[in-house]
Structure to design on (230 residues):
């Protein structure tokens, strides 16, 4: 069971985590990651631009890939778009499995791929003006370990 | 051909998307870039440095040597920064 959503509105992490549990008793571990807007260097807001059709297909493809690598019982990915201010939630990745290792690894795998493959772009607003965030070499390095 | 532009590519060109009837000789992304560069200063600015540019054909990441045809959807954007 998996669900992928791209939306403007906030999400409820507790509700997302609860929805990962099928209550059938086969799930032994749920790992989740929540990304927030970090208000460093005087950041006023961050606006996320995206390519809707490709976001859907890219995220779905990597969820499917994660399921071939680890025995996952449920996956939920929520990514927000639009204008967000420091402290707001941007992204949720939640993974359920029988054991913790698969859940931890799959959550990290999905985040690394979201950062380097999913078509989202961040525009940072500061008092000095607005600038598009540049991709980080470190993120490209992080994704290489999954190849 | 349907063209889409995102982030600073959209800002430089001044459009988020457009439908363009490209000549049959434009059969690759690289040829499309050369063709688009001649459409104006905004395009020239957007396509000046291809090292900082990425492309997707029909919603799949690909390279500038990829083939394109009249019914394709081609998107140009900087390296992604989501998550």
């Amino acid at each position: 069971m998996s669900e992928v959503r791209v939306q403007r509105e906030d999400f409820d992490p507790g509700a997302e985590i609860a929805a990962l549990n099928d209550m059938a008793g086969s799930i032994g571990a749920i790992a989740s990651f929540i990304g927030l807007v970090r208000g460093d260097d005087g950041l006023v807001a961050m606006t996320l631009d995206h390519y809707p059709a490709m976001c859907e297909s890219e995220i779905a493809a990597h969820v499917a890939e994660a399921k071939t690598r680890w025995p996952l019982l449920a996956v939920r990915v929520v990514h927000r778009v639009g204008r967000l201010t420091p402290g707001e939630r941007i992204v949720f990745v939640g993974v359920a499995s029988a054991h913790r290792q698969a859940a931890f690894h799959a959550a990290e795998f999905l985040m690394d791929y979201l950062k380097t493959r999913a078509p989202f772009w961040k525009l940072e607003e500061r008092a000095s003006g607005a600038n598009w965030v540049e991709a980080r070499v470190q993120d490209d390095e992080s994704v290489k370990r999954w190849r | 051909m349907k063209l889409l532009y995102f982030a600073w590519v959209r800002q430089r060109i001044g459009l988020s998307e457009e439908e363009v009837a490209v000549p049959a000789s434009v059969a690759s992304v690289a040829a499309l870039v050369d063709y688009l560069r001649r459409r104006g200063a905004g395009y020239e600015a957007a396509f000046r440095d291809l090292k900082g540019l990425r492309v997707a054909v029909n919603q799949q990441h690909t390279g500038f040597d990829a083939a394109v045809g009249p019914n394709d959807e081609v998107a140009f954007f900087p390296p992604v920064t989501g998550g």
